[in-house]
Amino acid sequence: MKQTNKHYVSEKENDKQRQTESGRGRQRARVSPPTSLREAGAKGKERGSAMAASPLPFLLRLRALTLALTVVAAAGKIPASRTPISRDLYHSSDSLLLEIKDLVARHSEKLSMDTIRASNKGYSAELFVVTFNHVKESVDNGSKVHVLLSFGQHGRELITSEVALRLLYVLTEKHKIAGVDLSSFEKMLENLVIKMVPMENLNGRKRVEAGELCDRRNGRGVDLNRNWSVDWGKKEKDYDPYEENPGFAPFSEPEAQIMRELARSFKPHIWVNIHSGMEALFMPYDHKNTTPNGASAHLMRSVLENLNRRHFQDSCLVGSGGGAVGYFAHGTTTDYMYDIGKVPMPFTFEIYGDETASNNDCFKMFNPVDKTTFDRVINKWCMAFLILFEEGLRNLRDAQLVSQGPLDNWVPIGGDIVEQSVARKIGRERRKLEGLDLGMQELRTYFRLFMLSTFLLMFMFCTRISSNRQRDSGNIFST
């Protein structure tokens, strides 16, 4: 167990911290039920204190689980889950992305969608990025808040992509969530531009759909939430080489490369990495037992605590990832977004965890399996995002952190945009042609100046030579 940092956590959170002694569920979950999941450093929100009172069973179960995972890793696969994917509740990856495409086509005045492909050392990945801009014809003069959301970074967390789909419906077609009128959020949405990646780890999701229900890695076995450069490659004592493979280098994976370039060009003010395994609202840092210093930390904590109070009745764990729970994760996306990407508000949200799931029941551990819970989780977190947008917009403007800069300028390094709206293509090509014409005009101007300068220099040189010859001739005659 890692010692928690109580200096940064409220008194209400201290009780929860003492119950999360075994480690951090949000970044890495062992194949165990959430009670044993807590014990093994996996995901699962702590609500009881029986484990803290009885450490011996915990240690025995942890040792047995670690041994089992070692054997499994040697065999090259994780044991099958007991609960299959609920096909009546969950979309397949293909059907979910197709439904999003149809939604974008129906609401082209608010939505656009880009498909990005990248590859590295024989491995390719494809990401879909949906952009919501409530008033697309208006010019983004820097007053709009940029929000970047990533769902499905771990393949087994299917519920996160379902929240992404429903949130897009809420932003375009659905005007109520569980009977709550959303008209009060309309004006707020006019001040946002939201880019959403509904399924960051599409290749990993395909592995899960093929039967590897406990797998969280991408298509070549790398944990995308360990492949970023901040504190990359560092291994804790309980490091699991199967689940936490950070890749052969920072940003070795095309998915991480695309997300990095998207963040660089879009310059989000708010970033949220959405996971499942427990219910929590996290801020940096993941790799150490502290939060950032100064005004930025106060701003992030204020937003999360207001969201927790307004919407969750203070039921969510709030704090830094490494400090609030006590399990360190290295090379995570959120730490990069804060330290390197300079995002003012980078968060990780954990939206669901089943503490009753048995040891290898990964699907049930990370995803609701009945319709009532499924709908409740989705509605609750869609509303949570609307409140987050409202809180973030207010706090960013109060702190005067809404930066200037162009909005629509992102093209991933090493990747190609293979699908985008016709209007955006035409606009971009027009800008390219205008730039080319301006460049040619400048070249012609420089050429004329060069020729004029050359002529003047030659004239001066010839005049000087002629003057010298005349002077020499006069000297001869005078002699």
Automatic annotation (TrEMBL):
UniProt feature, compositional bias: Basic and acidic residues: 8-24
Region of interest called Disordered, as start-end residue ranges on this chain: 1-48
Gene Ontology terms for molecular function: metallocarboxypeptidase activity; zinc ion binding
Matching SUPFAM superfamilies: Zn-dependent exopeptidases
Cofactor: Zn(2+)
Cell inner membrane as UniProt keyword: no
Alphabetized InterPro entries for the sequence: At5g42320_M14_CPD (IPR034269), Peptidase_M14 (IPR000834)
Domain Peptidase M14: 89-370
Gene Ontology annotations for the cellular component aspect, listed alphabetically: extracellular space
Keywords associated with the record: Membrane, Transmembrane, Transmembrane helix
BP GO terms, sorted: proteolysis
Active site annotation, chain numbering: E350 (proton donor/acceptor)
Spans through the membrane: 446-463
Family listed: Belongs to the peptidase M14 family.
UniProt-recorded name of the protein: Peptidase M14 domain-containing protein
Species of the source: Eragrostis curvula
Lineage: Eukaryota, Viridiplantae, Streptophyta, Embryophyta, Tracheophyta
